[in-house]
């Protein structure tokens, strides 16, 4: 049973508050600077293969992928529910001398808010798991489809919840950064998973602990494929990570989906007919 006392706060407000609070430390938690070297080759490949000139980064966080795309010459709109995250995006863009547009919006309002279609929509970093029903997920996917130009590309990256629910390991990661340690862990409360970030701050002999929690709804491959089809995507392929390796349900870290409204996607992958 889901502990409803933890869900009383309006859903969107809870997510916004969660990320507003985390925004000042989010880059330290996610190895912001190191990821540019690791992920840039794969995004350059996507941009060149599909002729991506304009893109939306839906659920951008502090803007890592938005900035990476901008570095590679793409005109980017960075979208997030958290105004504090978007402030970090703009700060990063100014520091890195990059141009992009920021937009605070819910996924279900994108089609009504954005007037100019794009070549690609990216929704990465497990953003879709914040949608707590199949109806909300379907609505978001339809909004993504409505924003894409003909032959547009949709790239989704979520955690591989098949593996997570199978293994039910509570601790996801432990990361040290100076005097602080960030522990990411789960509470399993079917049908949701509560995602927790425990920050342990050691200062001058004292220890301070802060816990932030947000509900997530696991997204599985068997669910999202028909929802993508109903949203208008006719070609869908699954991978085990951003580097486009084969998706293995019981061991892959991520579930990455590459979908197009038309055209062919050629790569080693799990193909869904």
Provide the fold topology.
Blueprint: H1 11-29, H2 32-50, E1 54-58, H3 64-71, E2 75-80, H4 83-95, E3 101-104, H5 110-113, E4 118-123, H6 134-147, E5 148-159, H7 161-167, E6 171-177, E7 180-189, E8 192-203, E9 206-216, H8 221-230, E10 235-239, E11 254-260, E12 270-272
Parallel strand pairs: 1-2, 1-4, 2-3, 4-5
Antiparallel strand pairs: 5-11, 6-7, 7-8, 8-9, 10-11, 10-12
Helix pairs in contact: 1-4, 6-8
Summarize this entry quickly:
With 273 residues, the protein is of the alpha/beta class. The chain has helices at 11-29, 32-50, 64-71, 83-95, 110-113, 134-147, 161-167, 221-230, and strands spanning 54-58, 75-80, 101-104, 118-123, 148-159, 171-177, 180-189, 192-203, 206-216, 235-239, 254-260, 270-272.
CATH topology of the largest domain: Rossmann fold
Distance between the termini: 35 Å
Number of domains: 2
Number of strands: 12
What's the overall average pLDDT, rounded? 90
Compute the gyration radius: what is it? 18 Å
Helix content: 25-40%
Q: How are strands sequenced across the largest beta sheet?
A: 3-2-1-4-5-11-10-12
The CATH class label of the largest domain is Alpha Beta
- How much beta, percentage-wise? 25-35%
Order of helices and strands: HHEHEHEHEHEHEEEEHEEE
Q: What ranges have pLDDT less than 50 throughout 5 or more consecutive residues?
A: 1-8, 263-271
Shape: globular
Helix run count: 8
Structural class: alpha/beta
Describe the biggest sheet?
8 strands, mixed
CATH superfamily of the largest domain: Vaccinia Virus protein VP39
List keywords for this structure.
2 domains; 34% helix; single chain; 4-stranded antiparallel sheet; N-terminal domain of TfIIb; alpha/beta; Rossmann fold; 273 residues; 8-stranded mixed sheet; disordered C terminus
């Amino acid at each position: 049973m889901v502990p409803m006392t933890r869900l009383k706060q309006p859903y969107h407000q809870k997510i916004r508050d969660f990320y507003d609070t985390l925004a000042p430390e989010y880059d330290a938690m996610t190895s912001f600077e190191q990821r540019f070297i690791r992920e840039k080759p794969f995004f350059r490949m996507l941009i060149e293969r599909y002729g991506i000139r304009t893109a939306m980064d839906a659920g951008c966080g502090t803007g890592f992928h938005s900035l990476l795309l901008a570095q590679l010459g793409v005109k980017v709109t960075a979208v997030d529910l958290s105004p504090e995250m978007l402030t970090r995006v703009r700060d990063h863009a100014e520091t890195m001398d990059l141009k992009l547009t920021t937009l605070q919006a819910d996924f279900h309002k994108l089609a009504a808010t954005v007037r100019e279609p794009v070549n690609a929509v990216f929704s990465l970093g497990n953003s879709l798991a914040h949608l707590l029903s199949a109806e909300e997920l379907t609505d978001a996917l339809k909004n993504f489809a409505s924003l894409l130009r003909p032959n547009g590309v949709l790239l989704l990256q979520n955690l591989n919840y098949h593996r997570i629910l199978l293994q039910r390991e509570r601790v996801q990661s432990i990361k040290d950064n100076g005097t602080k340690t960030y522990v990411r862990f789960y509470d399993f409360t079917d049908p949701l998973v509560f995602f927790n970030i425990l920050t342990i701050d050691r200062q001058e002999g004292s220890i301070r602990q802060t816990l932030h929690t947000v509900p997530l709804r696991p997204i599985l491959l068997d669910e999202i494929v028909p929802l993508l089809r109903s949203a208008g995507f006719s070609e869908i392929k699954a991978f085990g990570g951003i580097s486009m390796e084969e998706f293995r349900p019981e061991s892959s870290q991520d579930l990455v989906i590459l979908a197009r409204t038309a055209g062919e996607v050629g790569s080693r992958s799990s193909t869904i007919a």
